[in-house]
Design brief:
With about 100 residues, the protein is mainly alpha-helical. Helix content is about 75%, strand content about 5%.
Length: about 100
């Protein structure tokens, strides 16, 4: 026996549970596709990594240590630069203010 749709005025109204199921399907499908899009690589880096030559353990350790050394030296230079600005720049600005 087919279900009859209720009507409000001239419009036919579907059952609320049917609408709820359709909304749930839509949100599930949307969330699933967004999650799949966010977790897959879209940049093509996998192919680039496949074509890269392999490096050994010692070379990779050396590579990491060089970048660690660069980071430490960069941090030290930033600290020195900030100290120079505070030690020389701040008194200079204060002396200009009180002239």
């Amino acid at each position: 026996m087919p279900r009859h749709k209720r009507s409000i005025g001239n419009r036919k109204v579907r059952n609320l549970t049917t609408e709820g199921r359709e909304i749930a399907k839509f949100t599930t499908k949307t969330a699933d596709s967004m999650f799949r899009l966010s977790t897959t690589a879209q940049s093509g880096m996998k192919k680039a990594f496949d074509y890269m030559p392999q490096i050994g353990l010692l070379n990779s350790i050396k590579y990491a240590l060089v970048y660690l050394l660069i980071a430490v030296v960069g941090t030290a230079l930033q600290i020195v630069w900030i100290l120079v600005l505070i030690v020389f720049g701040l008194p200079f600005l204060i002396s200009l203010f009180f002239q």
